[in-house]
Every structure is written in structure tokens, then in C-alpha cells.
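Researcher: Predict the fold of DUF5785 family protein.
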Amino acid sequence: MDWPHDPDGEQGSEGKRKYGHAVIAKKIDEEEDFPLSRDEFVAEYGDDPVRIDYETVVSLREIFEGVEEESFDDFVEFHQALGRAMRKHGYWFYEGAEQFVASKKR
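Model: C-alpha cells for DUF5785 family protein follow.
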């Protein structure tokens, strides 16, 4: 795909390789962006590349196809929904991540 910027460059990951949540989180100002609309966020950043692992890059839009919530009241709520979607759709590559996920289903 022709990305709007290099996923490993300054705009994509501040010149260092950052993955998944870290790339997405830097697009949010925790003090000013909440409540946050999923659709508005995807409209603004949907074509941006997100590195999932050392060989996989997908668009932010692809990741958010799995996010069910339409809006988020705070950063924690946003990250929890994003994490659920990433795990459900195979975008979570961290070994042992299941240890940190509550056993109750949402």
C-alpha cells in the first residue's frame, strides 16, 4: 500500500519503531480529545499506517473495524476497546498478553 507517511519515520513512530497501541496513542491528547468519537478519529487518521509487528503494517482504519464502541469518555476506555479489537482480529502479537486480560468476558 502507498502510505501517507513512512510507518517507521518521524511522523509514523517518532523515528523509532513503535507498534500498535503506541502508534495510535500518540495521536491523542488525553487532556483535550475526550470524549472521543470513533468515527471522527478514523475519518482523521484512518489511512495512517500502524506497525503490528516487524513485518506487518495495516491502516488504522483496518484496526478500528473491530472496535464496537462509538465513543470513548477517557483514555482508559479507549485503550481497553482498542485492545479487545486488536486481540479479537489477530493484531495483538505480544506473547503472554492473555495473562493481562481479565478472565471475564465483555
